[in-house]
């Protein structure tokens, strides 16, 4: 079938496009760099015409509060309108586990707005909420670094590798829309402080990690279970330690 991947040149998008093509699907990789822009609408109707499924794994170029809200609202509105006009049967969107409890952040308020627009649309949908990716642990540490010190809370995290996210999304594309939210998480639950400590140790990074429950995660003061699934979730296989060894 014809599948359009919005954000097809990004971390998840590239992997998903490859996965779907290997399964024999006709896949359109869509992104501004490829001449298809979900914000301006450039090339969008043509790309979506004849598609059965649209997968949105795009991300905002700016995380400034108003800019990120404008991006997700405009992009999602344009996508859903084009999909409705083209008779698309399934809209699959990648979101974030725990979004409801992270609304102190403008980014997560924007993701929540995106989810609400999808739910209100007439296009059948599946929202896949994933936990934080292994690939972003370094940026998490950097965000909370002062000098040679990294401050992290002990709130739980259950990170996942991007390869497993892309594989799961390919599965959801082939399934019927759930018209709801599914959670996706890695196999290990640990403290955010422990995750970053393991990363620093593996990379022989000399920064000192200090556990600080008041340290914020991208500006959000976390509760113990803010970043992990609270109910049923699909659990993937790749362990953080295996990924660390492979990436060193």
UniProtKB/TrEMBL annotation:
Q: Check the record and name the SUPFAM superfamilies matching this protein.
A: NAD(P)-binding Rossmann-fold domains
UniProt entry tagged with the keyword NADP:
yes
Q: Which residues form the NAD(P)-binding domain?
A: 7-174
Keywords, alphabetical: NADP
Pfam families, A to Z: NAD_binding_10
Q: In its keyword annotation, does this UniProt entry include NADP?
A: yes
Q: Which PANTHER family match?
A: BLL4366 PROTEIN (PTHR42748:SF3), NITROGEN METABOLITE REPRESSION PROTEIN NMRA FAMILY MEMBER (PTHR42748)
Question: Per its record, how is this protein called by name?
Answer: NAD(P)H-binding protein
Output the lineage of the source organism: Bacteria, Bacillati, Bacillota, Bacilli, Bacillales
């Amino acid at each position: 079938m014809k599948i359009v991947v919005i954000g097809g040149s990004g971390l998840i998008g590239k992997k998903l496009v490859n996965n779907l093509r290997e399964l024999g699907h006709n896949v359109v990789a869509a992104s501004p760099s490829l001449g298809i822009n979900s914000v301006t609408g450039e090339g969008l109707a043509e790309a979506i015409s004849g598609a059965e499924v649209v997968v949105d794994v795009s991300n905002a170029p700016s995380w400034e509060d108003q800019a990120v809200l404008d991006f997700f609202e405009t992009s999602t509105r344009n996508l859903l309108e084009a999909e409705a006009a083209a008779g698309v049967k399934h809209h699959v969107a990648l979101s974030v586990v725990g979004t409801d409890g992270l609304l102190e952040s403008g980014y997560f308020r924007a993701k929540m707005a995106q989810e609400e627009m999808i739910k209100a649309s007439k296009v059948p949908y599946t929202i896949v909420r994933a936990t934080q990716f292994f690939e972003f642990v370094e940026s998490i540490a950097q965000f909370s670094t002062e000098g040679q010190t990294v401050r992290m809370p002990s709130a739980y995290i259950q990170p996942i590798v991007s390869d497993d996210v892309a594989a799961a999304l390919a599965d959801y594309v082939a399934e019927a829309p759930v018209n709801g939210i599914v959670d996706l998480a890695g196999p290990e639950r640990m403290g955010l402080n422990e995750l970053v400590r393991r990363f620093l140790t593996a990379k022989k990074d000399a920064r000192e990690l200090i556990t600080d429950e008041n340290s914020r995660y991208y500006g959000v003061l976390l509760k113990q279970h803010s970043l992990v699934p609270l109910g049923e979730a699909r659990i993937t296989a790749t362990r953080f330690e295996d990924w660390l060894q492979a990436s060193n």
